[in-house]
UniProtKB/TrEMBL annotation:
Pfam families named in the record: Pkinase
The name this protein goes by in its record: non-specific serine/threonine protein kinase
Gene Ontology MF terms: protein serine/threonine kinase activity
The keyword Phosphoprotein is assigned to this record: no
The UniProt record lists the keyword Transmembrane helix: yes
Length: 552
């Protein structure tokens, strides 16, 4: 120790904040517990640290936007003085070309995500947490701020059990210009409202959707629209109805009235607070009222239903969501994707783009051409699925298994092709369709980073442009113990039990193990028609553990 009692091995920021321990971090920085040497108190210090330290050299605009985003978080927090919002104390800013440090109050009870690792919440407990987060959102909305990233990891728990909302780094502040290029998706796919996924600004009702989805996840122990890939999750948020919760009791009705696609049909914040109060106290009252808003968005192909302020009763019934019809040659442009939005936005693009000409819903292996798509000038679109030395044609590339890929031999062929082409055998995801398969294979030496690949018989394995990190809590898995001979029987059960009468699409996907909800590895088979999706989950040996039929 030095003469002044400070540990010389510890870093001191701005001559004042001595870093003591790492509390957490992600792709864009680290949060530290630190000691304020002037006021003699513990604080939390957020260090912005992009994954590539040379970001400013090759992408100065990206570095500028990152710096401005941190300052935006500081400004947003400074405008809020509320017990359910984490307080900001100080900003250490070295000026242009540097990244600021944010000094905030230290909340010592961990996050809601940490709490959910121990298991689901009781409805009353979830309602109490929900009321606190809602109070923070109402204060933010009154100040002209939309949070846009409400999720368990961004809700901290004080020692007395009160929640505190944090991480306003991507908040939208009224009167300021956007920090993201046109077409960007910024946020967390699992908790993003449908209108924001479809490219709208969203507004306050989008934050209420995220809050309700977070509470649903907290009481059910699972996310109702999370799928095996970011692609499928984004598509589910856009096109699938939220199934009613089974563990939520009286809270279930409250959540289902918020989790409707039309923002104008969601309850007001006041009505939602009254409903949550009733659930928390054990005396549920009237259904939450709805109110017209300035964000009258309906999902593609569905009408906006006007709602009168002050009305009660169930939300309007909307027609079933359908995937928009697509024609040969259709293209969807997605430009300006930046930062952490890249994987999610490109995954959405992948979902919207046809894999070839013809009816996008056909599931048989011969329905799509296997020649590479071309641009209007005739050049191959190899940039979106570029071949690489470690992802070229395997020995199994030209072998088309009898019955297509959705057979035990077909799945084994796809797996062998991926592993032979890449030299990797740890998966964050594997999804097999009748005529192609996609995989997220872990980067060597990492339990978080993955690269994406696609396999097609006759063309081999191609590396996609999507790379990223796996969802918090998920773990990579090797496939040695999976019994793929059980897949045909699982599809037989699915056709009998999932309420999907005439499937237009079927596929099998890996279910990675998750520490968030203590769920083991498994596999799931999906059936989809024009009216919805049903799926069942099985363990690696093929024993069915969960059924999720499509809605009647």
């Amino acid at each position: 120790m030095s003469e002044d009692g400070r540990d010389p091995a510890r870093r001191v920021v701005d001559g004042r904040f001595e870093l003591e321990a790492r509390l957490g971090g992600g792709g864009m920085g680290t949060v530290w517990r630190a000691r304020d040497l002037v006021l003699h108190r513990l604080v939390a210090v957020k260090e912005v640290r992009p994954p590539d330290r040379d970001l400013a050299e090759y992408d100065p605009e990206g570095a500028r936007m990152l710096r401005e985003r941190v300052l935006r978080e500081a400004r947003a927090l400074a405008r809020l003085d509320h017990p359910n919002v984490v307080t900001i104390h100080h900003v250490v800013d070295g000026g242009e070309g540097t990244y600021p440090w944010l000094v905030m109050e230290l909340v010592t009870g961990g996050s809601l995500a940490d709490r959910l690792e121990r298991g689901p919440m009781a409805p009353a407990e979830a309602a109490r947490i929900g009321r606190g987060v809602l109070a923070a959102l109402r204060a933010a909305h009154d100040a002209g701020i939309e949070h846009r990233d409400v999720k368990p990891a961004n809700v901290l728990i004080r020692p007395d059990g009160r929640p505190a909302l944090t991480d306003f780094g991507i908040a939208a502040i009224r009167g300021t210009t956007t920090l993201t290029a046109t077409g960007s998706l910024i946020g967390t796919a699992d908790f993003m409202a449908p209108e924001r996924v479809s490219g709208q600004e969203g507004g306050a009702p989008a934050d209420l959707w995220s809050l309700a989805m977070m509470l649903y996840t907290a009481v059910e122990g699972r996310h109702p629209l999370r799928r095996g890939t970011t692609v499928a999750t984004l598509a589910a948020v856009l096109h699938e109805d939220v199934p009613p919760p089974v563990r939520a009791g009286a809270l279930g009705d409250v959540l289902m009235r918020v989790l409707v696609r039309d923002p104008a049909a969601r309850p007001t914040a006041d009505a939602l607070d009254r409903a949550l109060t009733g659930v928390e106290s054990g005396h549920p009252g009237a259904a939450p009222q709805t109110a017209t808003t300035s964000y009258p968005l309906a999902p593609p192909g569905q009408p906006t239903v006007p709602v009168t302020h002050g009305t009660f009763g169930p939300p309007p019934v909307l027609p079933p969501a359908r995937r928009p019809a697509r024609t040969p040659g259709h293209r969807t442009a997605l430009l300006g994707v930046t930062g952490t939005a890249l994987a999610g936005a490109l995954a959405l693009l992948w979902w919207l783009l046809p894999l070839g000409g013809g009816d996008a819903h056909k599931a048989d292996s011969g329905d799509r051409p296997t020649t590479p798509a071309t641009t209007p000038t005739g050049s191959s679109t190899a940039s979106s699925a570029a071949r690489t030395p470690d992802a070229g044609r395997s020995q199994a590339a030209d072998a088309v298994p009898a019955g297509g890929l959705l057979t035990p031999d077909g799945i084994r062929t796809a797996i062998a092709a991926f592993e032979e082409a890449t030299g990797r055998d740890r998966y964050a995801d594997l999804t097999v369709y009748p005529d192609h398969a996609s995989a997220q294979l872990m980067v060597e030496g990492s339990d978080k980073k993955y690269d994406s690949y696609t396999y097609r018989p006759g063309r081999g394995v191609e590396k996609d442009i999507i790379s990223g990190t796996i969802i918090s809590g998920d773990r990579p898995v090797r496939l040695d113990g999976f019994d793929w001979t059980k897949v045909p029987g699982l599809f037989d059960q699915a056709e009998k039990k999932l309420n999907v009468d005439k499937p237009t699409l079927r596929y099998v996907t890996l279910q990675p193990p998750s520490t968030t909800f203590d769920t083991p590895a498994g596999m799931a088979v999906y059936l989809t028609d024009d009216y919805g999706t049903g799926y069942l989950v099985a363990d690696p040996k093929g024993k069915v553990t969960r059924l999720h039929p499509a809605e009647d």
